[in-house]
Design a protein that fits this description.
Layout: H1 2-40, H2 42-45, E1 49-51, E2 57-60, H3 113-130, E3 152-153, H4 155-159, H5 162-169, H6 173-182, E4 184-185, E5 196-198, H7 199-208
Antiparallel strand pairs: 1-2, 3-5, 4-5
Subunit structure: The system is composed of three essential subunits: KdpA, KdpB and KdpC.
Pfam families: KdpC (PF02669)
Organism: Bifidobacterium callitrichos
């Protein structure tokens, strides 16, 4: 009996020590990684926040935004993001997507009738807005990303918006094109993925022009 109790006590003590040791390891590990992140890459560690010239946080370079008015119409002085299916459930009428707490895609298949109808209508509307043919409207201009929060568009979609933005802001197309190029990221390692343009950073740069 005593032998059995002694064995149980040793087992409990060993388990208790293991819990303490691993708890300390986890805490130390967390603090070490947090410290490394803050020292080595503070911008990324803190959410890649984007600030304006006054030091005010205006968003994150990792999360897209809608550049539309209260009716959902595109603000002509801004480059437009791709559509977002991340809807705020509390805003049924004026919902403009990019609601981070509801990150998601449309989850509709390519044969869905509503998706086909909405995509076709949106493509025509964008073509009319940008003064280009329907064939020149790229796929990302009319399709939401799987997260619904993509802050980037294709260089092709940015290119058809240059003329409109330049006209609205009284800038030369060359100036706007140079900003687009500045905020264009090439393929990873030169061959992974596609080139993209960060709309959040690009529009902030346009607002910061004097």
């Amino acid at each position: 009996m005593n032998s059995s109790m002694s064995l149980n006590l040793r087992s409990y003590w060993a388990g208790f020590k293991a819990v303490i040791v691993f708890t300390v390891i986890v805490i130390v590990y967390t603090f070490v990684l947090t410290g490394v992140g803050q020292l080595g890459m503070p911008d990324k560690a803190n959410g890649s926040m984007v600030t304006n010239s006054q030091g005010e946080v205006v968003g994150s370079s990792l999360i897209g935004q809608s550049f539309t008015d209260e009716n959902g119409d595109a603000l002509p002085q801004y480059f437009q993001s791709r559509p977002s299916a991340a809807s705020d459930p509390n805003k049924e009428e004026d919902n403009q997507g990019y609601y981070a707490a509801a990150s998601s895609g449309t989850n509709k298949g390519h044969a869905d009738e509503d998706l086909i109808k909405n995509t076709t209508e949106l493509r025509k509307a964008i073509a009319k807005r940008e003064g280009v043919s329907v064939k020149e409207v790229p796929a990302d201009a009319v399709s939401a990303s799987s997260s619904g929060l993509d802050p980037e568009i294709s260089p092709e979609y940015a290119a058809i918006q240059v003329k409109r933005v330049a006209k609205e802001r009284g800038l030369s197309q060359e100036k706007v094109e140079s900003l687009v190029k500045k905020y264009t990221t090439g393929r990873g390692l030169g061959f992974i993925g596609e080139s993209t343009v960060n709309v959040v950073k690009l529009n902030l740069a346009l607002d910061e022009l004097k």
